[in-house]
Amino acid sequence: MRRFAIAIALVAALGLTGCGLLDGPGPLQPQPSATGTPAPDPAATDAAPTEAPAEDAELAAFRAALEGQGVDDPEALVAAVQAAGFDRSAIERTRHLDSLGAPVTFVEIAVRQDGSCLLGQVGDGEPMAVRTSLLPEGRCLIGADTAP
């Protein structure tokens, strides 16, 4: 009798769950808009962006300075960024050894600029560089454990 009650409860639970699956369109179908017409599929639009983003010459120079750099010589990384025209006093980088003295996989480097940061990463794979906003403390990298 107990098995029969468990079987009935299981069937009822599956039945109720299945009812929720049948309500309304699925997640991949367009939802009707307020006018009753289907909303346009964003992936299907052929509209090109109206404006191409302006080329960021400083970011391009920073990214070029990171090319060919690695974690094994962080001073050469800083020197390359400085040689690209950035002020040495505005450059921050993370340490190249972890707290146990082992080499790190990636080194982050940043340049403080007027209200923004050029933030880069070198290590395994291609170097990465982006422009981002300053932290509230006026720095680019988090933590007191960054190298000058």
Descriptive overview:
The chain is globular and about 40 Å long. The N and C termini lie far apart (76 Å). The chain has a five-stranded antiparallel beta sheet, covered by helices on one side. It has 148 residues and is an alpha+beta fold. 28% of the residues lie in helices and 19% in strands.
What is the secondary structure topology, with strand pairs?
Blueprint: H1 2-22, H2 57-66, H3 74-83, E1 91-94, E2 106-113, E3 116-123, E4 128-133, E5 146-147
Antiparallel strand pairs: 1-2, 1-5, 2-3, 3-4
Helix pairs in contact: 2-3
Features:
single chain, 148 residues, alpha+beta, 3 helices, 19% strand, globular
The SSE string, one letter per element, is HHHEEEEE
Supply the helix-strand structural class.
alpha+beta
Total of DSSP H or I helical runs spanning 4+ residues? 3
Strand order of the largest sheet: 4-3-2-1-5
Shape label: globular
Radius of gyration: 27 Å
Largest sheet: 5 strands, antiparallel
> What is the residue-averaged pLDDT?
76
Beta-strand level of the residues, as a percent range?
15-25%
In short:
By secondary structure, this protein is α+β, with helices and mostly antiparallel strands. Helices cover 28% and strands 19% of the residues.
